[in-house]
Design brief:
With 275 residues, this protein is of the alpha+beta class. The chain has one domain (35-163, 203-270): Hypothetical protein YwqG fold (Roll). It has 5 helices and 14 strands. The protein has helices at 3-15, 20-27, 111-119, 181-194, 257-262; strands at 31-38, 49-50, 54-56, 64-65, 68-69, 71-77, 95-100, 127-132, 138-140, 152-161, 206-208, 230-236, 251-256, 269-270. The strands form 3 sheets. The chain has a 10-stranded antiparallel sheet. Strands 3-9 form a two-stranded antiparallel ribbon. The protein has a two-stranded antiparallel sheet with strand order 4-5. Strand 4 and strand 5 form a beta hairpin. The relative contact order is 0.20.
Amino acid sequence: MDPETSLAELRDFCAERLRADLAERVAGLVRPGFELVPAASGQAAGHSRFGGNAMLEPGVPWPRCEGLPLSLLAVLDTDALPPWLDGILPPGTGLLNFFHLDIESDQADPAAWDVTRRAGHCAPELGQVVAARSGLAVETEPPATAGVFAPVAWAAMPGFVFPDLFDSAWDAIDPEFGPDYDDVEVFKHEMLTEFWVPGSLLSEDMAFGRPVYPTGGGPVLPDGEDLEGHHHLLQLSDKHEWHIDGDGGWMHWSIPTHALRLGDFTQAIPTPDVW
């Protein structure tokens, strides 16, 4: 289904359950995203995958933190995802490589623990997103001490993503429901957990869209920055060979919205959600 038709169905669903002005505002909170699932043969979204080797342009250095090489966790092939991202990503964005300092897997360098303790689990310098133009990117093996995780090719199912129940994005709408805050919570719970909303996604591994908050706390931005000023890039659940902060932590990356429009992924940062 194309994004225009899918979004129209979602708006109709909201309009059947809310007064017109609220329905429009609620539907306005959704963002296009992609459920990422292991791909059957020939069904992968381009080079999109968990793990494996990075896809970098020749001459681009492998990212490091305090001298330690980061580990490649995922690749997103954005050229395989339009038209759902039209107007969000600059044309020709290509491949996005997602890196983070590995401290949890069996491959982790013991020195990485010291770096993470000093910086903190949510420090921006522990992760990077490196873009590569599709026509120039080549598979690049990591340095010797970086972790390498078994590759899992991804298929991408498009849809729209509502804010999580605990997402502050709802704050702009909550007052419109009236003085009884409990009614607001009931509405959101039913909307996001009990109804099947046409065109919407609720996924563990997800590209773009909005983040899920498994801990109830949500992804962490540095210095108390507003999450609404950032755009979500990738969510990895705790079911993979790699995980963060023990069981239950989910990994996210975000980018300031103005930087995303410019295609400046040097400003993208890890925004983990940890217990």
